[in-house]
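pinned: reference chain
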Amino acid sequence: FFNPHLTFYVVYIWSKQHPNARVNLFGMPLAAAYLPLAYLVIGYALNNGEVIPVDLLHGMFVGHIYFYLACIVPKVLGGRRAVVSTPVVLVDLCHWLEGRGLAGDGGGGDEGNDGPALVDVDGVIGG
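pinned: its structure tokens
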């Protein structure tokens, strides 16, 4: 049900994290910053210009809100605290899948921090 929304959310976040990366879309090279817009144009064209791809717009909207609150707001406020952050359970799961230590066992997490998890705005969202 939410597969297109979630997929486009991830594409939007990735394109914001790597705006200068080069991608190849149907043989046409373009910067990653334009990838979400290219997908919107392709989705609109595949619907014969009759239906706006709302699922893609929804994923873009949610991705933009998350990126703004997790990456832009901390930079503007001068701190590295995120308004929203990835839950520690998901960060631990990804670290476990990659073979790294968990955030709670001294494997690179933020011990002794009572607030929300810090966001590494220079790397992957969520630390």
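why pinned: Residues 54-76 form the longest helix (23 residues). The chain has a mean pLDDT of 77.
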